């Protein structure tokens, strides 16, 4: 009766017919995305921001480091599983100065994700039409090569990739 009609009218579920598990059919990258290294926040007043994280929230806060090649001062706030990077302009041509002109009180500037092979990542991302904001990696705040991906290609987020 009713049970046999339900069994015959139920949709058929198709399965992948392959001797390999489905995930083995996905082409592998020559590089791997790693952990979130930090979230960078542009701040108009670096001392005030340092004080918030150190004195009010009780975080471990690094000394201020100038990175002239990037046009910024940086301070790292340790959070256990990741870091915050506080960014402040170093000079008028700093990319952070122009960011702060548009965002007077500061705000999230970029996220940084580690990769195991930055050169392979660059090659593959270019093939996938992801714009990279420099021809070659630059040395970042941690002394390791970094690149930035165009935010328009990353859903509005400026993404920094750092060699792990």
UniProtKB/TrEMBL annotation:
<keyword id="KW-0413">Isomerase</keyword>
<protein>
    <recommendedName>
        <fullName>Methylmalonyl-CoA epimerase, mitochondrial</fullName>
        <ecNumber>5.1.99.1</ecNumber>
    </recommendedName>
</protein>
<dbReference type="InterPro" id="IPR029068">
    <property type="entry name" value="Glyas_Bleomycin-R_OHBP_Dase"/>
</dbReference>
<comment type="function">
    <text>Methylmalonyl-CoA epimerase involved in propionyl-CoA metabolism.</text>
</comment>
<dbReference type="Pfam" id="PF13669">
    <property type="entry name" value="Glyoxalase_4"/>
</dbReference>
<dbReference type="GO" id="GO:0046491">
    <property type="term" value="P:L-methylmalonyl-CoA metabolic process"/>
</dbReference>
<dbReference type="GO" id="GO:0005739">
    <property type="term" value="C:mitochondrion"/>
</dbReference>
<feature type="domain" description="VOC">
    <location>
        <begin position="35"/>
        <end position="164"/>
    </location>
</feature>
<keyword id="KW-0479">Metal-binding</keyword>
<dbReference type="GO" id="GO:0046872">
    <property type="term" value="F:metal ion binding"/>
</dbReference>
<dbReference type="GO" id="GO:0004493">
    <property type="term" value="F:methylmalonyl-CoA epimerase activity"/>
</dbReference>
<comment type="similarity">
    <text>Belongs to the methylmalonyl-CoA epimerase family.</text>
</comment>
<keyword id="KW-0170">Cobalt</keyword>
<dbReference type="InterPro" id="IPR051785">
    <property type="entry name" value="MMCE/EMCE_epimerase"/>
</dbReference>
<dbReference type="InterPro" id="IPR017515">
    <property type="entry name" value="MeMalonyl-CoA_epimerase"/>
</dbReference>
<dbReference type="InterPro" id="IPR037523">
    <property type="entry name" value="VOC_core"/>
</dbReference>
